[in-house]
TrEMBL record:
Provenance organism: Leptotrombidium deliense
Gene3D superfamilies in the record: Copper homeostasis (CutC) domain
GO molecular function: copper ion binding
Name by which UniProt lists this protein: Copper homeostasis protein cutC homolog
Domain of life: Eukaryota
Family, similarity comment: Belongs to the CutC family.
Annotated SUPFAM superfamilies: CutC-like
Pfam families listed in its UniProt record: CutC
Length: 259
């Protein structure tokens, strides 16, 4: 069985450092994780690639979110053009190992045409279909479509708010995928549920923010800053390390069971 992998979603240099120090195997780099993640800036990608990943003593993959706005996943032609251009710019800058995106039609089915357009723009790089999958209308039909389109993995909470509440569906997706695509559980994964999610779903990759709230160090605060700008979420090294250790223990258990 392949080694279990941990992907951490981040939207800042601080979180990227914490994810790497904690043992993450892959970074999903975004902006604005508070709204589910949007396309990150080239400057953020460049800094993480050149100053963190390239100086690390182990391989770490860097995937970039391609999502032009908050809200749903049914995009206009203008938005899709922007998504395509951002993919091309990231490839030309040699900054990423893969991409994360997902597009739906108004009826809740996978937008085959525009997914295919963006897949062509990636020039064969690995792509994750993100949690747009969790708001599609037919998960098993959608899984087959995503496979046909050439995506490498699906990030999913099993069409629930938290992956831990959808273990049955995630396990069925893993079974039906039958090694044709990776099913990666995500949303609400933490130290208390990762072991059971891994054991019960047979998934081999897992996605988490491994985050805590960080409070502002500003000495001056007025009512506006106290209400809106006093705290935010950042990835925490020990949270990542704990998740990584849980997956390592599960790896050892699988090895022992196979012997």
């Amino acid at each position: 069985m392949p080694r279990l992998l941990l992907e951490i979603c981040i939207d800042s240099v601080e979180s990227a450092k914490a994810a790497i120090d904690g043992g993450a195997d892959r970074l999903e780099v975004c902006s604005a994780l508070a709204v589910g993640g949007l396309t990150p800036s080239l400057a953020l990608l460049k800094y993480i690639r050149n100053n963190l990943i390239n100086k690390c003593d182990r391989p770490i993959e860097l995937y970039a979110m391609i999502r032009p706005r908050d809200g749903d996943f049914c995009y206009t032609n203008e938005e899709i053009e922007i998504m395509q251009q951002e993919i091309v710019m990231m490839i030309n800058a040699n900054l990423v190992d893969g991409f994360v995106f997902g597009l739906l039609r108004v009826d809740g089915t996978i937008d085959r045409e525009n997914c295919s357009r963006l897949m062509r723009a990636t020039n064969g790089m690995a792509v994750t279909f993100h949690r747009a999958f969790d708001v599609c209308c037919e998960p098993f039909e959608s899984l087959e479509t995503v496979i046909e389109l050439g995506f490498k993995r699906v990030l999913t909470s099993g069409q629930m708010l938290n992956a831990a509440d959808a273990i049955h569906l995630i396990a069925e997706l893993v079974k039906r995928a039958n090694n044709r695509i990776i099913i990666m559980p995500g949303s609400g994964i933490n130290r208390n549920n990762l072991h059971s999610i891994a054991k019960l779903t047979n998934a081999i990759e897992f996605h988490s923010s491994a985050s805590i709230h960080k409070h502002s160090s500003m000495q001056f605060m007025n009512q506006v800053s106290k209400t809106h700008f006093n705290k935010w979420k950042v990835t925490e090294t020990n949270c990542v390390r704990t998740l990584s250790n849980i997956l390592t223990q599960n790896d050892h258990q699988h090895t022992e069971d196979d012997q």
